């Protein structure tokens, strides 16, 4: 399923298929709901666009790494170090591979469904379960270090930083854990609406602080030591008569660059905030549940229709928009080899020109699609697909 799913927070599980279809049919008649729901509306995903290739991305290696998302809407993203890449599937298998050639290094089967991660740092990798457990494994061999039961299904896990890891659970709470022992330092959160998009953005670790988005449309900066709220900013304002119209999640990737925090909200804005006090430097009405990426003076985002945008990150002005991938479940962009790269629901990785957004190259990874964030390290992009295929693609030679 290449598009966002809905979540009811009373049951802490995805709503039933019949109710999902009913809500999506309603969404088709509501202009405020954007294009996040695709295959259940009258408009199908755009066909794979034809173009004249300028570059030829090269698949370095491709490995089978478990069951992927197991047919669920999960953002299971790879964790990459200097030498390894670690992925987890929905059935509890965690696998580590060599970054150089994809050789298998270790594999661990955990006896529970996984819904969050992978993230890590300081020789530790951390995953989260649908049963509300955060689990830390040794990076070298996958041995379990600690396991901590939290308040609800684990949706996202921060990087390990300053001796801590921050876990976001489905009930709208953040849990700051000691990365060595799993002991809970503090818990904080915000009120969660009855209906929201399934998924949560990864908490962003900063020096002495952690930023997190919530399903009520707010982004909050917490002190890492005590969990006290330092400032709070509105990214999306809930409005409308129905729960569906009032969805205002801040779910996507955030970026800190030069003292400015960039974020996006569903049915809200793309914003630039002062990291010191949360003051809004600029904002654009642009709905996104995927988040943003930054390179140089440019900010890239994928909106709720699957259109890819380039904005001037200094003032939010539009530089270009690529709409040929409309409703194809397009991921948050990454930047590689001078090009902007996005994945889609059929597993294609599309190379876009940073100058005008024109399609410039394409290669296919997991045919079941890509839902999690892709990672770029040293001229290679790593993408973990919903069918469990892990692909490493090198930057193409420039013409």
From TrEMBL:
It comes from the Bacteria. GO terms for biological process: Gram-negative-bacterium-type cell outer membrane assembly; protein insertion into membrane. It is found in: Cell outer membrane. One of its GO terms (cellular component) is cell outer membrane. Keywords: Cell outer membrane, Membrane, Signal. The keyword Membrane applies. SUPFAM superfamilies: Quinoprotein alcohol dehydrogenase-like (SSF50998). Residues 91-322 form the Pyrrolo-quinoline quinone repeat domain. Pfam families: PQQ_2. The keyword Acyltransferase does not apply. InterPro entries: BamB, PQQ_b-propeller_rpt, PQQ_rpt_dom, Quinoprotein_ADH-like_sf, WD40/YVTN_repeat-like_dom_sf. PANTHER family: CELL SURFACE PROTEIN (PTHR34512), OUTER MEMBRANE PROTEIN ASSEMBLY FACTOR BAMB (PTHR34512:SF30). Part of the Bam complex. Belongs to the BamB family. Part of the outer membrane protein assembly complex, which is involved in assembly and insertion of beta-barrel proteins into the outer membrane. HAMAP family: OM_assembly_BamB. This is Outer membrane protein assembly factor BamB.
